[in-house]
Amino acid sequence: MLNDNILVFKNDLERWAALCAMDGIRYVGKPVDPEAAEQLLDGVWEFVTETCDEAGFEHPDRDKAIGILRDLVIEFSEEFDE
């Protein structure tokens, strides 16, 4: 299981933000449309930015996080095709 603690990802906050969104996808347990990545990230963005503020980190690049999340969603969906 991946550790999604922000301190582990302090040098890759975009990946951490994407993994926060992936937590919800994994919980539901079914694939989603990769084009929904922006909406999925919107669902956790306030949590992401507040947590970064509390940790004293800059906010992640939102567009980069969306791209990473899109890739993670595709990988997750491919697991269902196997």
Describe what you observe in this structure.
The longest helix has 20 residues, at 62-81. With 82 residues, this protein is an all-alpha fold. Helix 1 (13-28) crosses helix 2 (37-55) and helix 1 (13-28) packs parallel to helix 3. Helix content is 67%, strand content 0%. The chain is elongated and about 40 Å long. It is built from three helices and no strands.
Short description:
With 82 residues, this protein is mostly helical. It has helices spanning 13-28, 37-55, 62-81.
- How many strand units? 0
Stretches where pLDDT is under 50 for at least 5 consecutive residues are: none
- Succession of helices and strands: HHH
**Helix content percent band:** 55-70%
Largest sheet, in brief, is: none
Report the average pLDDT across residues. Answer: 89
User: Roughly what fraction of the amino acids lie in strands?
Assistant: under 5%
Multimeric state: single chain
- Gross morphology: elongated
Structure class:
mainly alpha
- Rg, rounded, reads 12 Å
